[in-house]
Amino acid sequence: MKIKVWKKDPRAKLLKKSTEQSVGYDLFALEEVSIDPGEFTLIRTGLVIKTEPPYALFIFPRSSLFKNKSLIMPNSAGIIDFDYCGEEDEIKIPVLNLGKEKVIVKAYEKIAQAVFIKIGNPEIEEIFTSPKSSSRGGFGSTGGWK
Question: Which part of the chain is the dUTPase-like domain (predicted)?
């Protein structure tokens, strides 16, 4: 299977795996961005990516994003739908600066990871009674909140 990638901006760098065993493909900032403390911004990649079922595209933060820059992706992960590939559907990385200093993201700096995950689309059926006779506690794992 091949994933179709369009450089909406000719300066864009194609996504790339750092090593052969990497799960994710690195995504790169298109241009330098300055992010003040507490500021939210979208970092452009310059790419439009077309995926085909059954492989959906998920965008995850790089593990060094917070450690080195105090930046988080406030949505934790981005889900790129199969039909998010029009001319204006550039992949942009949402970041929030939780630090106390201004952060500079340089052009072509690695900022996120693109992971292609095989998904299914099951049929949804409404039922009218609880599917399980005993409860596990409501929220969280087996212990629940007490």
Answer: 12-143
Pairing of strands 33-35, 47-50: unpaired
**Residue 143 DSSP code:** T
Q: How far apart are CA 66 and CA 62, in angstroms?
A: 8
Predicted model pTM: 0.85
Q: Is the peptide bond before 10 cis (omega within 30 degrees of 0)?
A: no
Q: What is the pLDDT of residues 52-105, one digit of tens each?
A: 999 999 999 998 999 999 999 999 899 999 999 999 999 999 999 999 999 999
Which residues are within 8 A (CB) of 98 and not within 5 positions of it... i.e. 6 or more apart? 37, 38, 66, 70, 71, 72
Cβ burial 37-71 (10 Å sphere, 16+ → b, else e): eeeebebbbbbbbbbeeeebbebbbbeebeeebbb
Could you tell me which residues are beta bridge partners of residue 39? Answer: none
94 contacts 75 by C-beta, under 8 angstroms: yes
